[in-house]
Specification:
Rossmann fold; SIR2/SIRT2 'Small Domain'; six-stranded parallel β-sheet; elongated; 2 domains; 36% helix; alpha/beta; 15% strand
C-alpha cells in the first residue's frame, strides 16, 4: 500500500476511531454497509421512561460482559504500535469498548465515555460496571441463567438483544438514591466540555489526522475533521462506506481498518521510515 500523502511530515498524527475499527473484535457497528438497521437509545428515552430504562439495564446486564471480554484486533494494536514509535500523538475514539487502551495505547480520549463505568445523575458518585453487576446479581438472582445467552447480539453500546426483561429489578445510587446511568454519551446528550477541549488540543497540534472506521455521521467526530481541514492539516479517512467528511479528506481509502492500519504501521515504523522523520 502506498503511504498516504500527508503522513510523512512527522510524529504528530492524531487518530479518530469509530465503530468500524472494532468490528474485527466482534463488536458490530451502527452504520456499516452490512449492518442491520439499529435504533440507538437516546438520552431522553433513558431518563424519561422507567420501563425503557428497566429494559436497558436488563439487556446491558448481559451485554456488558460480552464487550468486557472483547479483545483488541490488529487495527488497535497497529495504532498502539504507531504511538510507541512516536508517529501517533493521541487517539480520539468514539467507541466505548476500551479496546485502544487494552491494546496498549496511552493517550486515549474516550470521547463518548466507556462501558466500564457507571455514574449517578444526581451526585458525583462514579462506580465500576463490575461493582454494579455484583449488586444487580444480588437483586436479580438467576436472571442471567434464565435468559439464554446463545446467539445474543451485542450492540456497540453494550446493549444485548433480549426481550424477556419485565421482571428485572433496577437499582439506584447507593449514595443518594439518584438515577444510575452508564458513563456513555447517548444520542441527544452533549459530550463533556473537558473531553471536547482536550480533543481539540490534540487536533490543533496535529500534523495529520487519520479517521479509522467512522462514518462521521454525528457532529461529535465530524467537528474535529472540520477543524483539521480549517487548519490546513491533511485528513486521511479509512472506511468501507462513504462518510460525512469525504469532501474534506486529502486521501480517502475504502478498505478495512485492520489491514490498512497494519500496512501503515509496518511502513511508518521501519528503521528507515523512523530515521526519515
Amino acid at each position: 500500500m502506498a503511504r498516504p500523502a500527508g503522513l510523512r511530515a512527522g510524529p504528530r498524527l492524531v487518530v479518530i476511531s469509530g465503530a468500524g475499527l472494532s468490528t474485527d473484535s466482534g463488536i458490530p457497528d451502527y452504520r456499516g454497509p452490512d449492518s442491520p438497521p439499529r435504533n440507538p437509545m437516546t438520552y431522553q428515552q433513558f431518563v424519561g421512561d422507567a420501563e425503557f430504562r428497566q429494559r436497558y439495564w436488563a439487556r446491558n446486564h448481559l451485554g456488558w460482559r460480552r464487550m468486557d471480554a472483547a479483545r483488541p484486533n490488529r487495527g488497535h494494536r497497529a495504532v498502539a504500535e504507531l504511538e510507541r514509535a512516536g508517529v501517533v500523538s493521541g487517539v480520539i475514539t468514539q467507541n466505548v469498548d476500551l479496546l485502544h487502551t487494552k491494546a496498549g495505547a496511552r493517550r486515549v480520549i474516550d470521547l463518548h465515555g466507556t462501558y466500564a463505568r457507571v455514574c449517578c445523575l444526581r451526585c458525583p458518585t462514579m462506580i465500576s460496571r463490575m461493582t454494579l453487576a455484583e449488586r444487580l446479581e444480588e437483586a436479580n438472582p438467576g436472571f442471567a441463567e434464565d435468559v439464554s445467552a446463545t446467539g445474543i447480539e451485542v450492540a456497540p453500546d453494550a446493549d444485548a438483544v433480549v426481550t424477556d426483561t419485565a421482571r428485572f429489578r433496577m437499582l439506584d445510587c447507593a449514595t443518594c438514591g439518584g438515577m444510575l446511568k452508564p458513563d456513555i454519551v447517548y444520542f441527544g446528550e452533549s459530550v463533556p466540555a473537558d473531553r471536547v477541549a482536550a480533543a481539540f488540543d490534540l487536533v490543533d497540534d496535529a500534523q495529520a489526522l487519520l479517521v479509522a472506521g467512522s462514518s462521521l455521521t454525528v457532529m461529535s467526530g465530524l467537528r474535529f475533521v472540520r477543524r483539521a481541514a480549517k487548519n490546513g492539516v491533511p485528513v486521511v479517512i479509512i472506511n468501507r462506506g462513504g462518510t460525512r467528511g469525504d469532501d474534506l479528506a486529502t486521501v480517502r481509502i475504502g478498505a478495512g481498518c485492520s489491514e490498512t492500519l497494519c500496512a501503515l504501521a509496518e511502513r511508518l515504523t521501519t528503521p528507515s521510515a523512523v530515521a526519515g522523520r
